[in-house]
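User: quick one
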Amino acid sequence: MRKFNVLSVCGSGTVTSSMIAEKLKEAMEEQGIKITATEAKPTEALQLSEGGNYDFITHTSPLPKGNYPVPTIDAVGFLTGFGEDEFLDEVMRVIKEIESKS
Amino acid sequence: MSLKKSKVNHEIIKLKGEISVFFETLKEVFQTFGSPVFVPVIIFIISKILKVNNKKAFFSALYAGVGLEGFTLLLNAFTPIITPVVKSMVENTGIQLPVFDVGWQATALVAYSTEAGMIFLGVGLLVQTVLFLTRWTDVFQPGDLWNNYSYMVWGSMIYMVTKNMILSLGCMILLNMYSLLIAELIAKRWSTYYKYPNCTIIAMHNIEAALFTVAFDPILNAFGLNKIKLSPEELQKKLGFFGEPVSLGLLLGIFIGIMGNFKALGTLAAWGQVATMGIATSAIMAIFPRVAGLFAQAFLPITDAAKKSVKNGSKSRKWYLGVNDATGYGEPATLISGIILIPIMVFMALALPGNQVLPVVDLLALPFMVQGIVPLVNGNIFKVLITGTIWFSAGLYMCTYTAPMFTDICASVGVHLPVGALLITSFNILGKPLMGLVFLAFLSQSPVLIGIAVAVYLVLYVSFRKNKEAVYDYLDQNALKNTAEEAKSEITANT
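Assistant: Done. Structure below.
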């Protein structure tokens, strides 16, 4: 099984990010991809992503400006339910990009 | 005819009897099993009604129980540490702040575990869906079911004091309707400012300030404050220290510790307690939210199922989807003004006569709380600071007043606080002056006061709905009077 580490960001780093992470895990399991997620606040995102443990970031809050070393994906559509497919397409695109590099 | 009537009356009496038996039984079962067992069962049943599959429903239910038990374990471990310190702070320094703010996450867990809360879990979803489908409101609230706990807290207090579930339900539904009205009032501004098309936030505790802002803003403009442009990015970087749970917790813990040991600061034991308080408060700030994160997973399947049910029936009308307020959190003017308000609110809590609340965990919620203000003043940070300081200070008094009742509710779901030593509150959830007035009307059980609360709602509702476009235009024009640039946020995929 293919495995990816995701940093899930929302305002408080608790409620919404947990929901997004859980939903993403389920959706990706159908594709044979295992997602491990960590929840975080926007202000922690840059520092955590620089630690090198994450493959990409999903966020429902705007991220502070910075040079993020990994792809960042807006997850608001996934949260509202009105852009789920677009979000999942974007995740798959990022995953393929990561796989082609390694 | 009269026979028919008496038969109907008889049926009504029978129904009333059945309802009260139902609530009595519910109460007994509830008390025997306790909320960490009872809540998962309810979540499982609701999930099944919404046709969630067994595995998902089971895990949702279990997460709810785990979150709740985790919260009880934590708070029961924390109170013996903080209680003596707060007590001696009150005795030694005369700082009368015996009400500790445990934060919105903990409050949510408590609210969901009360009888009133569990009943509203179903009733709220139903009421909100019906109000939307009948076009009473153009905001679809079940997009963010999580925040329903905001009504449950008030409703639970009504039920605890009056033992009247109908009254409690009435209070929760009226509060819900008030907050839907506010959500619709700010919908266009929120959606435009934060750049989420057709979305608005619905959390009552974070939009209540909008009513005050609408009334207060013309006064600020009269003083020319709309021309002030503040862009304190530098200040935010310096104050960023306050915005992190662990560092803010340490700082506040040490502060309480020093106040509590004011007369004994020459002794080693005193500094031991100061340091312990610092680390313990820091730990609470960091761990509480994680527990709420576990609990939140229980709500995902229900929220998703509710959203799917409305998608089909909502074509060809202009409407707004209720989204979680996390979506506005990181916007620069919001985050900056929220963080600057942290030290301001601590100062206000110390300075205001009669206030008994020390805001702690919910200081971190300030960037959520200002979201009812920021879009209306188009990100004018200076105005947000003034409006927020006044309104949230008023909120401290509502927290002070409701603290004994809220503490009792916590005790009823299994948090054991030593009597008379320490009270708890949530600065974000209970610090709502206007919604608090509606609550007080129901608490009084006076038909006149409840009638006034309903009448005020109806007047506001009718005048808003009749002039909706004009109100939206006014709010837009008023917001654009501010010279502050609309802050550019880093929304990448959406734009």
